[in-house]
Amino acid sequence: MQLLLEKIRQQGIVLPNNVLKVDSFINHQMDPQLMKEIGKEFARRFQNEGVTKILTIESSGIAPAIMTALVMNVPVIFAKKRKPLTLTEHAYTSSVYSYTKQETNIISVSKDYLKSNDTVLIIDDFLANGEAALGLINIVNEAQAKVAGIGIVIEKSFQEGAKKITNKGYRLESLARIASLENGTVTFYHEHSLKV
Protein backbone atom coordinates (compact mmCIF):
# COMPACT_ATOMS: atom_id res chain seq x y z
CA MET A 1 0.00 0.00 0.00
CA GLN A 2 2.05 2.85 -1.39
CA LEU A 3 0.23 5.71 0.37
CA LEU A 4 0.97 4.15 3.77
CA LEU A 5 4.63 3.49 2.92
CA GLU A 6 5.08 7.11 1.84
CA LYS A 7 3.49 8.41 5.06
CA ILE A 8 5.78 6.22 7.17
CA ARG A 9 8.83 7.35 5.21
CA GLN A 10 7.90 11.06 5.39
CA GLN A 11 6.43 11.34 8.89
CA GLY A 12 7.51 8.25 10.85
CA ILE A 13 10.14 8.90 13.52
CA VAL A 14 12.49 6.14 14.64
CA LEU A 15 13.07 6.20 18.41
CA PRO A 16 15.51 4.11 20.49
CA ASN A 17 14.71 0.43 21.21
CA ASN A 18 13.18 -0.17 17.75
CA VAL A 19 10.15 2.05 18.35
CA LEU A 20 8.55 3.69 15.31
CA LYS A 21 6.54 6.79 16.16
CA VAL A 22 3.64 7.33 13.75
CA ASP A 23 1.40 9.36 16.01
CA SER A 24 1.12 12.22 13.51
CA PHE A 25 -1.08 10.11 11.21
CA ILE A 26 -2.11 6.78 12.82
CA ASN A 27 -2.45 6.72 16.58
CA HIS A 28 -2.66 10.18 18.12
CA GLN A 29 -3.55 12.46 15.26
CA MET A 30 -5.15 10.49 12.44
CA ASP A 31 -5.21 11.00 8.71
CA PRO A 32 -8.82 10.14 7.77
CA GLN A 33 -8.06 9.71 4.06
CA LEU A 34 -5.27 7.28 4.87
CA MET A 35 -7.55 5.41 7.30
CA LYS A 36 -10.22 5.21 4.61
CA GLU A 37 -7.74 3.64 2.19
CA ILE A 38 -6.48 1.25 4.89
CA GLY A 39 -10.07 0.13 5.52
CA LYS A 40 -10.68 -0.43 1.82
CA GLU A 41 -7.48 -2.46 1.48
CA PHE A 42 -8.24 -4.74 4.45
CA ALA A 43 -11.81 -5.20 3.17
CA ARG A 44 -10.45 -6.15 -0.27
CA ARG A 45 -7.98 -8.66 1.16
CA PHE A 46 -10.53 -10.38 3.40
CA GLN A 47 -13.64 -9.99 1.23
CA ASN A 48 -14.07 -13.73 0.65
CA GLU A 49 -13.70 -14.83 4.29
CA GLY A 50 -17.33 -14.43 5.41
CA VAL A 51 -16.42 -11.91 8.12
CA THR A 52 -19.28 -11.15 10.53
CA LYS A 53 -17.38 -9.10 13.15
CA ILE A 54 -14.16 -7.11 13.39
CA LEU A 55 -12.23 -7.26 16.66
CA THR A 56 -9.51 -4.87 17.76
CA ILE A 57 -7.96 -3.57 20.96
CA GLU A 58 -8.26 -0.08 22.36
CA SER A 59 -7.29 2.43 21.37
CA SER A 60 -5.02 2.63 18.33
CA GLY A 61 -6.67 -0.26 16.51
CA ILE A 62 -10.12 1.32 16.59
CA ALA A 63 -9.72 3.72 13.63
CA PRO A 64 -8.50 1.14 11.07
CA ALA A 65 -11.04 -1.38 12.41
CA ILE A 66 -13.96 1.03 12.00
CA MET A 67 -12.90 2.00 8.48
CA THR A 68 -12.63 -1.67 7.52
CA ALA A 69 -16.00 -2.45 9.11
CA LEU A 70 -17.60 0.44 7.25
CA VAL A 71 -16.57 -1.06 3.91
CA MET A 72 -17.44 -4.63 4.97
CA ASN A 73 -20.71 -3.54 6.62
CA VAL A 74 -20.11 -5.46 9.86
CA PRO A 75 -19.90 -4.39 13.55
CA VAL A 76 -16.65 -3.59 15.35
CA ILE A 77 -15.87 -4.86 18.84
CA PHE A 78 -12.92 -3.49 20.73
CA ALA A 79 -11.31 -5.27 23.64
CA LYS A 80 -11.14 -3.02 26.69
CA LYS A 81 -7.86 -2.76 28.58
CA ARG A 82 -9.47 -1.78 31.83
CA LYS A 83 -12.59 -3.60 32.87
CA PRO A 84 -15.41 -1.10 33.47
CA LEU A 85 -17.97 -1.62 36.22
CA THR A 86 -20.60 -2.26 33.55
CA LEU A 87 -18.66 -5.28 32.25
CA THR A 88 -19.35 -7.93 34.87
CA GLU A 89 -17.98 -11.47 34.89
CA HIS A 90 -19.87 -12.03 31.63
CA ALA A 91 -16.72 -11.47 29.53
CA TYR A 92 -13.96 -13.20 27.63
CA THR A 93 -10.53 -12.14 28.90
CA SER A 94 -6.88 -12.50 27.95
CA SER A 95 -3.57 -11.17 29.29
CA VAL A 96 -1.56 -8.91 26.95
CA TYR A 97 1.92 -7.46 27.47
CA SER A 98 2.65 -4.13 25.74
CA TYR A 99 6.24 -3.81 24.49
CA THR A 100 5.88 -0.06 23.94
CA LYS A 101 4.27 0.71 27.30
CA GLN A 102 6.12 -2.03 29.23
CA GLU A 103 2.96 -3.13 31.04
CA THR A 104 0.54 -6.06 31.12
CA ASN A 105 -3.20 -5.53 30.69
CA ILE A 106 -6.10 -7.92 31.04
CA ILE A 107 -8.22 -7.24 27.98
CA SER A 108 -11.90 -8.11 27.95
CA VAL A 109 -14.82 -8.44 25.54
CA SER A 110 -18.44 -8.89 26.57
CA LYS A 111 -19.89 -12.30 25.76
CA ASP A 112 -22.96 -10.44 24.44
CA TYR A 113 -21.06 -9.31 21.35
CA LEU A 114 -18.98 -12.33 20.35
CA LYS A 115 -20.74 -15.62 19.56
CA SER A 116 -19.62 -19.07 18.44
CA ASN A 117 -21.14 -18.55 14.97
CA ASP A 118 -19.06 -15.41 14.30
CA THR A 119 -16.22 -15.23 11.79
CA VAL A 120 -13.88 -12.61 13.18
CA LEU A 121 -11.32 -10.42 11.44
CA ILE A 122 -8.74 -9.07 13.90
CA ILE A 123 -7.34 -5.63 13.05
CA ASP A 124 -4.56 -3.73 14.84
CA ASP A 125 -2.22 -0.85 14.11
CA PHE A 126 1.10 -2.55 14.97
CA LEU A 127 2.53 -6.04 15.12
CA ALA A 128 5.85 -6.41 16.94
CA ASN A 129 6.05 -9.28 19.42
CA GLY A 130 2.49 -10.38 18.67
CA GLU A 131 1.10 -10.11 22.19
CA ALA A 132 -1.98 -8.03 21.32
CA ALA A 133 -2.88 -10.16 18.29
CA LEU A 134 -2.41 -13.39 20.25
CA GLY A 135 -4.53 -12.02 23.10
CA LEU A 136 -7.32 -11.21 20.63
CA ILE A 137 -6.98 -14.66 19.02
CA ASN A 138 -7.35 -16.19 22.51
CA ILE A 139 -10.58 -14.25 23.03
CA VAL A 140 -12.01 -15.44 19.68
CA ASN A 141 -11.02 -19.01 20.54
CA GLU A 142 -12.57 -18.68 24.01
CA ALA A 143 -15.83 -17.67 22.29
CA GLN A 144 -15.45 -20.73 20.01
CA ALA A 145 -15.74 -18.39 17.03
CA LYS A 146 -13.63 -18.56 13.86
CA VAL A 147 -10.60 -16.32 13.17
CA ALA A 148 -10.83 -15.15 9.55
CA GLY A 149 -7.37 -13.62 9.77
CA ILE A 150 -5.30 -10.83 11.24
CA GLY A 151 -4.93 -7.48 9.47
CA ILE A 152 -2.03 -5.30 10.61
CA VAL A 153 -1.32 -1.74 9.49
CA ILE A 154 2.44 -1.83 10.31
CA GLU A 155 4.39 -5.03 10.95
CA LYS A 156 7.89 -5.00 12.41
CA SER A 157 9.07 -8.05 10.49
CA PHE A 158 12.36 -8.17 12.44
CA GLN A 159 10.48 -9.03 15.64
CA GLU A 160 8.80 -12.34 16.47
CA GLY A 161 5.09 -11.48 16.18
CA ALA A 162 4.48 -12.44 12.55
CA LYS A 163 6.25 -15.76 12.97
CA LYS A 164 4.25 -16.58 16.13
CA ILE A 165 0.96 -15.94 14.34
CA THR A 166 1.74 -17.71 11.07
CA ASN A 167 3.29 -20.70 12.91
CA LYS A 168 -0.11 -21.17 14.57
CA GLY A 169 -1.68 -21.37 11.11
CA TYR A 170 -3.43 -18.00 11.04
CA ARG A 171 -3.64 -15.83 7.94
CA LEU A 172 -1.71 -12.58 8.41
CA GLU A 173 -2.02 -9.57 6.12
CA SER A 174 0.23 -6.59 6.89
CA LEU A 175 -0.03 -3.41 4.83
CA ALA A 176 3.52 -2.21 5.62
CA ARG A 177 6.28 -4.63 6.58
CA ILE A 178 9.38 -3.11 8.17
CA ALA A 179 12.60 -5.10 7.89
CA SER A 180 14.76 -2.75 9.93
CA LEU A 181 14.87 0.49 11.92
CA GLU A 182 18.67 0.46 12.14
CA ASN A 183 20.55 3.77 12.20
CA GLY A 184 17.26 5.66 12.56
CA THR A 185 16.13 4.65 9.06
CA VAL A 186 13.00 2.77 8.08
CA THR A 187 13.77 -0.06 5.66
CA PHE A 188 10.73 -1.84 4.27
CA TYR A 189 10.75 -5.60 3.84
CA HIS A 190 10.60 -5.50 0.03
CA GLU A 191 13.58 -3.10 -0.04
CA HIS A 192 15.55 -5.25 2.39
CA SER A 193 15.00 -8.41 0.33
CA LEU A 194 16.31 -6.58 -2.74
CA LYS A 195 19.57 -5.78 -0.89
CA VAL A 196 20.15 -9.36 0.30
Structure characterization notes:
With 196 residues, the protein is of the alpha/beta class. It has one domain: Rossmann fold (3-Layer(aba) Sandwich). Helix content is 31%, strand content 32%. It is built from six helices and ten strands. The protein has a six-stranded mixed β-sheet with strand order 4-3-7-8-9-10, with helices on both faces. Strands 1-2 form a two-stranded antiparallel ribbon. A two-stranded antiparallel sheet has the order 5-6. Helix 2 packs across helix 3. It is globular and about 45 Å long. InterPro entries: PRTase-like, PRTase_dom, Pur/Pyrimidine_PRTase, Xanthine_PRibTrfase. Homodimer. Its main location: cytoplasm. GO terms for molecular function: xanthine phosphoribosyltransferase activity. Pathway: Purine metabolism; XMP biosynthesis via salvage pathway; XMP from xanthine: step 1/1.
